[in-house]
């Protein structure tokens, strides 16, 4: 099992959460909530209002999201879904645990008690330079007051 931190449309209550609970795509078990230890710019960009975490450590906000344990099948699905490695790149990041529900081995419990876990995160280093000038968010909600609702793939 791998640990994945999601901050955008795959979170509970967001437009693509359905994929996280679709066992035909693999297993994803919600473990808790967290935020990035380092600051990153989270922007909403493009004509489909897609959330992107730009891989610029030290700039932006501590981005909030959810931590999941996923099996290899789900990880492969997420790589494909996120357009990895072209649109997003899957990298390890340090995530501060804010709320923990996970049950696992002693190592996992110890890491959570420590407060910091290493998780795979889909961020991007391949973005148009003008995205750096977009507003930065610390948390994503498709129906947030930014007014930039995500456009589902099937509606594009």
UniProtKB/TrEMBL annotation:
Q: Which GO terms describe its molecular function?
A: gamma-glutamylaminecyclotransferase activity; transferase activity
A GO biological process of this protein is: modified amino acid catabolic process
- What EC number(s) has UniProt assigned to this enzyme? 4.3.2.8
Please tell me which top-level EC class this enzyme sits in. lyase
Pfam families noted in UniProt: GGACT
Q: Where does the Gamma-glutamylcyclotransferase AIG2-like domain start and stop, copy by copy?
A: 4-125
Give the record's keywords alphabetically.
Lyase, Transferase
Q: Can you tell me which residues form the catalytic site?
A: 82 (proton acceptor)
Q: Which InterPro entries match?
A: AIG2-like_dom (IPR009288), GGACT (IPR039126), GGCT-like (IPR013024), GGCT-like_sf (IPR036568)
One term under GO cellular component: cytosol
- Catalysed reactions listed for this entry: epsilon-(gamma-L-glutamyl)-L-lysine = 5-oxo-L-proline + L-lysine
Q: Where are the transmembrane segments?
A: none
UniProt entry tagged with the keyword Magnesium: no
Described by its record, this protein's role is as follows: Catalyzes the formation of 5-oxo-L-proline from L-gamma-glutamyl-L-epsilon-lysine.
Name the protein family. Belongs to the gamma-glutamylcyclotransferase family.
Question: What is this protein's record name?
Answer: Gamma-glutamylaminecyclotransferase
Which organism is this entry from?
Mystacornis crossleyi
Q: What gene name is listed for this protein?
A: Ggact
